[in-house]
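Researcher: I'd like a structural prediction for the single chain below. Treat it as a standalone chain; there are no partners to consider.
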Amino acid sequence: MTERFVGARRTILAALGTVLALSLSAPARAAGTAADVPDGAIHVEVVAANGSGCAPGTATVVANADKTGFRVRYYDFVAAAGGSADPTARRRNCQIGVLVTVPAGWTFAIAEADYRGRARLNNGATGLQRTNYYWQGSSANNRTEETFTGPLNGYWHTEDVAPVLVYVPCSEQRVLNINTELRVDAGTSSGTSSMSMTSSEGDVDTLFNFSWIRC
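Model: Treating it as a single chain, here is the predicted structure.
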C-alpha cells in the first residue's frame, strides 16, 4: 500500500501537563480491524543515532508491551539561547534510525507521534520543535513543526497525526528515520531561555503509535 496522508499537528501548552484526548480515524484496511495486533513478538531497536542533541548513548527506544507502538527517550536534548548560553546551543537536533521487526503476515505504519518536553522561554523569546519522518529508501518526506512564544515556563506537548502513514511492504524491513530539531531564539528577551526533551525532567518520552494491517 502506497497511500500517504499528510500529517496534522495538535499542540498543548500547559504548566501542569494538561492531557489531550485525541480521536483518530483509522484508514481503510484490506483485512483486520483497527484493534488487531500481531500475536508474535515485536522487536524495536535504534540502528543509528547522531546529532548535537543525541551524543552516543543518550537516545534509546523501548517497545510498548501492548504492541501499540514504541517510545524514544532522550537524555541530553536541550537547546538554549541568550544569557550565558553557548551560541552554538541555540539549535539541537537528533536523527535516529529505528528498525521494527514484526511477525510474518503483518505490516505497519506510524499513525501518530506524541512529543513532550519542557520550555523555559523568557518574555520575547521563541522556541521551535520540528520533525522530519521518512522510510529508508523512500523519497516521501513529511515534516511537521510547532512554535512556542515566551513567557512560558512549563511542559509542552505536541501531537503529530498520521506522520508516516505509508505501510512498509509486506515481508520487507525498512528503517524509519526520525529527525527532530529543537531551536531557541532569544529575541528581545534577557537571560537564558531553553527548550528540552529529556527524560530526566519527567514523563517526556516521545511516543510513536503503530497502525497495523494484515498482509
